[in-house]
Structure formats: structure tokens, C-alpha cells
Design a protein that fits this description.
Length: 340
């Protein structure tokens, strides 16, 4: 991938003419890749496989998909129908769980692990349950979870809720460890090396903890709530939305971002809604509330235009495993695939 810096005021280099436009016809709530096939998660219960031959899977017929997680081989979705559904590379969808409460959050982990929350109850299937046998482990969170995330290694689940994050080993009898901080914690993420846990809060700020000793890290200054976070390819930086510029917090040192200023890139006219860092190169894709999508090289801030502004906010961005393809979707039902 080549990117050219933008000295002075010449127009930003563009690859918009290389985007294959898709017409999902529904709000795109999430997106990802199953194998090499791009997939769009649609609000009204469907999944669009957007390969050479487009096809749709009715994962939640008659329902609304509220949350999704994709790891390249599985797509896990939860809906207002109380169901958790796993869709595979082959395009088959099977029910994992069915209950009465809405499914608020889902997560995928190593070795086939998966988790979801309904009300205050967190369910975790650690990948060792044979179909039709046994039952997921459960944990009663202090309040309705706002986010779930598996640690990069081992089966340990971070559960974000009011008052902090609980770190739970579903296969152990030990009581979950509480990383405490007042306030409502929503999306949660582990650093790729497992040293830090970070949440985006209901307030316009992030909060982090060093897992080894629970040391607190407060990251504030945002004009709006942060709804999207993504780790850079090296794992040393956390890219975030929530501002009119891309904010990247440094996590290479043992104290993470404490005492350090974040890097800022690509100031725009509206706030950034979604961020997705390239899996192997220090590049970030950013989607704004005005529909603009840019690629930003983190070494020098060079920008490339993927989609001009216009239409609804960008609601989903995802890279293929090797970083050769970028997929996007918007709130007003637009979508596209960029092959680099």
C-alpha cells in the first residue's frame, strides 16, 4: 500500500473510484470478513454476504440485531428476539442461545470461546461444550453490562458495567476481580499484549487499568462520547473516535498513556464515528458522522480519501485479515468495498 503525504493545500489523494459500491438497503450495524468474504450485519435481522455472488442470511427473522462480533471464521449476533446466532464462513446460521431478554453485548474469544449478556447475566461458552450438551457458564454482573471482551490469551472475560470492569475466568470458581472506577463503562477492550484494559465511558472519556496492579488511567478531553476504539498494528497505540480528529493514546510504556499526550491526526468538520486500524501496517481507517472515510498513515499523518462526505454517519469499518480489503457501512444503508 502506498500513501502520499499532502503538503500545502492540494486535494487529498483519492481511491474512491476503486470502491465497489454495495446496496444493502438497511442500516449497517457492523461488518467484518468470514474468510475472504465481506459480510454486512443489517439492523433488521439480516446478514449480507457481499462476495462475488451476493446472498442474504436471515439470522434474526422478524427481529433487530443489537450487537455483533466477528473473528474471521465466526460471526456472532444478538438481537431483540432474545437469541444469539452464530453464522459461519459457509453461510450457515445456527442458534446458540434463546431467552426472553434482549441480547445487549456479544464477544468472541480464543479456542472457540464466545460470550453474551442478557439483562445482568453474562453467559460464557468456553468452546469446550459439545452441541446439545452442557450449558454455558454464567456470571451475575453488578449492573447491565455495557461491553464484553476476551483477553488475547486464555479464557478470561472483561465485563464492563457501572462502577468498573469485572475480570472473570468462566472455567474457575474464583470470584471475578473488580477493576473499580465510578461511572458507567460501555465498550471494553484489552491491549493486544494483555497488559491493559480500557473502557469508553458514558461520559466523554476513556478509563484504563494496568491489569497487573489495577493502576488507574484516565483519558479525557473528548467533546463527545467515544463509541469506537481500535489498537494499532504494533499494539502500542489505541485509536479512538469521539472527536473531530483521530486521537491515539500511547501504550508502549509500562505506565501506558499516563503523563503523555495523545497523537492527533486528520481533523475534520464532524466527529469521527468509527475507527479501524490496519492489521499489519500503521494505518487507520476513520469514518466520520458526515459520511467521510479516510485512510491515515500514522507515521506522518498522510491522508487518502476513500469516500467523500455525504449521507448518513459511517457506522461500521473492518479490514480483511491480511489488510488487503476495507469494508464499510453507514446508518442510511450505504456500503462499499475497497481493494488495495
Amino acid at each position: 500500500m502506498s500513501m502520499t503525504a499532502n503538503p500545502g493545500t492540494p486535494p487529498t489523494p483519492s481511491v474512491a473510484d476503486r470502491v465497489r459500491i454495495l446496496t444493502p438497503g438497511d442500516t449497517v450495524t457492523a461488518c467484518g470478513f468470514l474468510g475472504e468474504t465481506p459480510v454486512l450485519v443489517l439492523a433488521e435481522g439480516g446478514i449480507l454476504f457481499a462476495g462475488t455472488d451476493e446472498r442474504r442470511v436471515a439470522a434474526h427473522p422478524g427481529g433487530v440485531i443489537l450487537c455483533a462480533a466477528c473473528d474471521g471464521s465466526r460471526l456472532l449476533t444478538g438481537g431483540d428476539d432474545g437469541r444469539v446466532v452464530e453464522t459461519t464462513v459457509e453461510g450457515t446460521a445456527h442458534e446458540v442461545f434463546s431467552g426472553k431478554a434482549w441480547i445487549d453485548t456479544v464477544a468472541l474469544g480464543p479456542a472457540g470461546a464466545r460470550a453474551w449478556s442478557a439483562g445482568k447475566t453474562v453467559h460464557a461458552d468456553t468452546g469446550k461444550i459439545e452441541p446439545g450438551k452442557g450449558a454455558p457458564k454464567t456470571f451475575a454482573a453488578p449492573s447491565t453490562p455495557g461491553g464484553l471482551a476476551f483477553a488475547p490469551k486464555g479464557v478470561r472475560l472483561a465485563v464492563a458495567h457501572y462502577g468498573g470492569v469485572s475480570l472473570w475466568f468462566p472455567n474457575a470458581a474464583a470470584k471475578p476481580e473488580l477493576l473499580e472506577w465510578k461511572g458507567s463503562h460501555l465498550p471494553v477492550t484489552w491491549s493486544p499484549d494483555g497488559r491493559f484494559v480500557v473502557t469508553a465511558m458514558h461520559e466523554p472519556q476513556l478509563h484504563g487499568w494496568r491489569v497487573a496492579d489495577g493502576a488507574n488511567m484516565r483519558m479525557s478531553g473528548y467533546p463527545g462520547r467515544v463509541r469506537s476504539m481500535s489498537w494499532t498494528a504494533t499494539g502500542n497505540g489505541l485509536a479512538t473516535g469521539g472527536a473531530t480528529a483521530l486521537i491515539i493514546w500511547p501504550f508502549a510504556a509500562k505506565d501506558g498513556p499516563m503523563g503523555k499526550q495523545p497523537a492527533m491526526f486528520a481533523p475534520g468538520a464532524t466527529r469521527i464515528a468509527v475507527v479501524a486500524c490496519h492489521p499489519t501496517t500503521e494505518i487507520a481507517a476513520i469514518g466520520f458522522e458526515d459520511g467521510l472515510i479516510l485512510l491515515v498513515r500514522l507515521s506522518d499523518g498522510a491522508e487518502i480519501l476513500v469516500r467523500p462526505p455525504g449521507g448518513g454517519p459511517v457506522s461500521a469499518l473492518a479490514w480483511a485479515e491480511k489488510g488487503s480489503t476495507l469494508l464499510y457501512g453507514t446508518e442510511d444503508g450505504a456500503a462499499g468495498i475497497l481493494t488495495l
